[in-house]
Amino acid sequence: MSATHTAGRGRTTITDVARVAGVSVATVSKVINGRDGVAATTSERVMQIVTELGYASSLVATSMRGSRTHVIGVLVAEFEPFALQLLQGVSEALSETTYDVLAYAGAVSSGSHLGWENRSLSRLGGTLIDGAIVVTPTVHLPETSMPIVAIDPHRGPAGPATVDTDNLRGGREATEHLISLGHRRIAHLRGRGDLESARLREQGYREALRSAGIDVDQTLIAEGGYRPAEAADGAAALFDADDPPTAIFAANDLSAIETMRVAADRGLRVPEDVSIVGFDDVPEAAGATPPLTTVHQPLAAMGRSAVDLLVRMIDDAAEPTHIRMPADLVVRGSTLSRSVGSR
């Protein structure tokens, strides 16, 4: 029986997983609960089938849960600055509760990272944690009996319980700040194409330009990808153009800081020759040279709000909801009036 055929019949069961994987139900149970006694190749095969059949939703809804663990899982793709700031807020909030925290990075191993959150929920749900906070999930999370709160989901607040930031407003404020300084050739180093937050930041950039009567120049929009290597390539393309920008709004701080480095390599001064704005306000932003003007995303507060919502869902059966946090511009030393600059 093919995985496609099985998945198409309706709700997937542990028996379906066992049949497609060619193993016993007991073996599947051992794998998804992290127990010993299963060969690594078999375990990988079972988890592959779990992902393909979408069995995560079945797993975390099973009756294997004997009692509450008083542990909340925080699932992140990897431990990078964005996630670490969120974890700080989660830790602070949980210190006022009876819950402990289990932090789990689900996309650091080799292979495809799409669907990492479903695989992580399969491994942790039902026996180890009472609820989960999933940071920037790549797919819609499964409907389960275990409460789940998503922070900044890739596809936007489509699920019932989410916490995110007003990315549209933040993108507008970043661009409006540069316009207020007299800049007209304002570039945007966009974020990842699969993230709704990145799309909204770019939309805010475009809306701010149009409101100011400035045409959106597609040659001033470059791929940044939220990572330094991609940001370096995008920034280099902008600086090496025949008519380079006098200001750049980067979709996150790591990209903005990398853009500052690329500018310095070309002998350009920040902010005298080019003004640069980031987004997130991670600790590295204030420590940059010069300190980075950025849009403050209240990451620790988002973590605390996610905990508050999740605990109420677990303890009081509170209804899931969508919480949107404000995004506010923080002006530092990386931006300057166009009339002061030399270019």
Question: Tally the helices: what do you get?
Answer: 13
Number of strands: 12
Largest sheet strand order: 2-1-3-4-5-11
Termini gap:
66 Å
Rg over C-alpha atoms, rounded to the nearest angstrom: 23 Å
Describe the structure.
- By secondary structure, the chain is an alpha/beta fold.
- It is 41% helix and 16% strand.
- It has 13 helices and twelve strands.
- It has helices spanning 3-7, 14-21, 25-32, 40-53, 56-59, 81-94, 116-124, 167-180, 196-211, 228-239, 253-265, 283-286, 299-316; strands spanning 71-76, 100-105, 131-135, 148-151, 162-165, 186-190, 221-223, 247-250, 275-280, 293-296, 322-325, 328-330.
- It has a six-stranded parallel beta sheet, sandwiched between helices. Strands 7-6-8-9-10-12 form a six-stranded mixed beta sheet, sandwiched between helices.
- α2 (14-21) crosses α3 (25-32) and α6 (81-94) crosses α13.
- The radius of gyration is 23 Å and the shape is elongated.
- Residues 4-9 and 57-66 have low confidence and may be disordered.
Which key features would you list for this structure?
elongated; 6-stranded mixed sheet
Quickly describe the structure:
41% of the residues lie in helices and 16% in strands. With 343 residues, it is of the alpha/beta class. The strands form two sheets. It has a six-stranded parallel β-sheet with strand order 2-1-3-4-5-11, sandwiched between helices.
Topology of helices and strands:
Elements: H1 3-7, H2 14-21, H3 25-32, H4 40-53, H5 56-59, E1 71-76, H6 81-94, E2 100-105, H7 116-124, E3 131-135, E4 148-151, E5 162-165, H8 167-180, E6 186-190, H9 196-211, E7 221-223, H10 228-239, E8 247-250, H11 253-265, E9 275-280, H12 283-286, E10 293-296, H13 299-316, E11 322-325, E12 328-330
Helix pairs in contact: 2-3, 2-4, 6-13, 8-9, 10-11
